[in-house]
Specification:
By secondary structure, the chain is α/β, with parallel strands linked by helices. It has twelve helices and seven strands.
Length: 306
């Protein structure tokens, strides 16, 4: 067990608890989501099925449904309260859409909401054309296994597009905590290059990775910590320190963070990693061997042997 391992139950509990106030604190999440949506403009893909992984309160889901109006959308999140908030955000279908759904069940104008772990997708192989995830992958227990699951559910030629956090995220807060004790207080994040390698190992083709630094500023440390808690983004490491900091420890933490103050504000850095990769034709194994399928029965008939 390492300090980077996450407590899955704690992650779910934190996001359930934060669901009702999440949107009031999620300024950064909306900005990153908008930037990720802009990247869709550079692809001609017109998916018939879209999976939004870590949909949260549905901000990105609503925009995906608007962009791909004819597509069937599926929103997946580990927190039931987040999915309830997403459902409330979605526009209700018109009577005509409901009538069309009754007449032609294969046509769906609804978003399917699924409460599940992104590492164990309850979806059929090759069932999605676009897997989309904005700031959720940092919560994966096993990122490479999660990416393999994404590849499995993508149809040949499908696209994965995501944003996640890199190692320099909240570096000021991590350094301040390190000055008061040795316990992990800030989650660890995976490096851009490692994610690119994982995509290749998962079977994806032509991965493209980008990174940018975004900085939020705060009047004081309490406001920053309140923002993080309001987004459900607090420390969920298995080996995290339980309980609140004592008054003396909090004062030392504030003093350590104050060394970062610039022009009257305290910065909080977020390293944002953007990536996309294609499922490809899905006929190659992880070791590079080509998979060739033969229809023996059809071949025998053609040869007059059947």
């Amino acid at each position: 067990m390492t300090e980077s391992e996450l407590d899955f139950a704690e992650v779910r509990r934190a996001f359930d608890h934060a669901a009702t106030r999440y949107d009031a604190h999620a300024v950064l999440q909306r900005e990153v989501c908008d930037r990720l949506l802009e990247r869709l403009e550079f692809t001609t893909l017109q998916p018939s099925r879209v999976l939004d992984v870590g949909s949260g309160t549905g901000y990105g889901l609503v925009q995906l449904r608007s962009r791909y109006a004819e597509a069937e959308c599926c929103a997946l999140d580990i927190a039931p309260a987040m999915l309830a908030a997403a459902r409330a955000r979605l526009p209700q279908p018109t009577w005509a859409q409901r009538a069309l759904q009754r007449l032609t069940p294969s046509v769906s104008h609804h978003a399917h909401l699924v409460c599940a772990d992104m590492e164990r997708l309850p979806l059929a192989p090759n069932s999605m054309n676009l897997v989309w995830s904005s700031l959720a992958l940092q919560w994966a227990h096993d990122l490479e296994a999660t990416l393999k699951g994404f590849h499995q559910v993508l149809a040949p030629g499908g696209l994965l597009m995501f944003a996640t956090f890199g190692p320099d995220t909240l570096k000021e807060l991590r350094a301040a905590f390190a000055s008061i004790d040795d316990a992990p207080h800030v989650n660890r994040f995976v490096d851009l290059h490692d994610i690119g390698d994982m995509l290749i190992h998962a079977g994806f083709a032509s991965p493209v990775m980008e990174m940018e630094m975004l900085t939020l500023t705060y009047a004081d440390l309490k406001t920053l910590m309140r923002d993080l808690k309001g987004m459900g983004a607090h420390n969920a490491a298995t080996m995290r320190r339980r309980g609140l900091l004592g008054k003396a420890a909090w004062l030392r933490l504030e003093q350590a963070y104050e060394t970062n103050r610039l022009e009257g504000r305290l910065p909080a850095t977020f390293e944002v990693i953007y990536g996309h990769a294609w499922a490809g034709d899905k006929t190659r194994r992880e070791d590079g061997r080509q998979v060739i399928e033969f229809n023996i029965g059809e071949r025998r008939r053609k040869l007059g042997l059947a």
